[in-house]
Specification:
9 helices; single chain; Rossmann fold; 7 strands; alpha/beta; about 230 residues
């Protein structure tokens, strides 16, 4: 597992070409943009909502979040790495978005604003040394009916060990190791957001977990999006 300084160095080196290299996984059929769209859709954000993205990186999800919350909404992007935030800041400036706030912070030290409608993390929270306290803090910050959505990688069930190790090796450039693939963050979400649902993607190598904050009236938990 990488420590804080190692993550900063790794993503500091990768920041300049991060958007390009992330898209290379399409060559092996990993439909990253479809998965990101599904994750943002699962948030169920109304226009004018406030959403916090943990591990926002270069801001790849910002256009999707902007389409959901509109100019009257607010997006808070949190990331540990200055170089990634620099790229995100340039993306925001190019688009002319005035409703985006960028925060350099370790996920575990970030103080979520209360009463937010959504918390998103895509391929990031599993890298945190202690992700469950982050999930707990996010759950406490959600407004009634808000949702936390996590898109991340996992160990696929039923795969031979050599195939699992190959899949992990392919994602090593982004700091993924076998111990991280064994994490089951949806279980931590369900402890703090009972009713969390999970959909597996890409043969079980990835998943979307949707955790609903209790609504002011009794309602069934949201179903995760179809991964097909």
């Amino acid at each position: 597992m990488l420590n804080r300084d190692q993550i900063v160095r790794l993503y500091g080196r990768r920041a300049r070409r991060y958007d390009l290299t992330a898209n290379l996984y399409y060559l092996i059929g990993f439909r990253e943009w479809r998965y990101r769209r599904l994750a943002v859709r699962a948030l169920g954000l109304p226009p004018g909502a406030t959403v916090v993205e943990i591990g926002c990186g270069t801001g790849l999800n910002f256009p999707l979040l902007q389409a959901a919350v509109g100019p009257s909404g607010r997006i808070v992007g949190v990331d540990l790495t200055p170089a990634m935030l620099e790229r995100a800041r340039a993306r925001v400036a190019r688009a002319g978005w005035r409703n985006v706030t960028l925060v350099q912070s370790d996920a575990g030290a970030y103080a979520f604003p209360p009463g937010i409608q959504g918390v998103l993390s895509t391929f990031a929270l599993t890298l945190a040394p202690e992700p469950e306290p982050v999930i707990a803090a996010a759950a406490r910050a959600l407004a009634p009916g808000g949702r936390m959505v996590l898109l991340d990688l996992k160990r696929p069930e039923g795969w031979p060990e050599w195939a699992v190790r190959l899949a992990v090796w392919i994602t090593t450039p982004f700091g993924v190791h076998l111990d991280l693939a064994d994490r089951r963050l949806w279980e931590a979400m369900d402890r703090h957001l009972p009713g969390t649902n999970r959909t597996e993607l890409y043969g079980g190598c990835a998943y979307i977990a949707v955790g609903p904050a209790p609504a002011s009236v009794t309602a069934p938990p949201p179903a995760p999006p179809s991964g097909r």
